[in-house]
Amino acid sequence: MSLPSRINLVTLGVHDVAASTAFYERLGWHKSTASNESVTFFRSNGTVLGLFSRSSLAEDAQVPNSHPGFSGVTLAQNFDSEADVDAAYQHALDCGAKAVKDPEKVFWGGYSGYFADPDGHLWELAHNPFMPLNDNQHMELP
Predict the structure, then answer these.
(1) 51-75 pLDDT tens trace
(2) Which residue, among 26, 15, 35, 18, has the nearest Cα to 94 in the 3D structure?
(3) Domain 1-56 is in which class?
């Protein structure tokens, strides 16, 4: 069997599940009733975002719980316009996100900015005119 080309769940290791849950709720995300005090789940248009204790996540994967700074991973949301990126970015900052890179025109022809959640996970907010969103807000790849 081959590995299907899909991502069902992205789990972020966080220092304080309750505080991180509150941050994502301020962003406007709604936690699932499958959540409990140890783990929070948010529906995300076909993919689930999970928040789980960083130390417990490392223990489960049987890897060291080290925090190297930039992990080489970013999460991203695409928007229909530059104005939508600006509004979403400002909303994230208003909810307690840390500004990393204010939205601007970028080398690949789009428009994007970055913020960090309370645990330092990087989120890119972008408008990519070459990969428009469909009616379900999914990216259309050529």
Answers:
(1) 999 999 988 888 888 866 677 789 9
(2) 26
(3) alpha beta
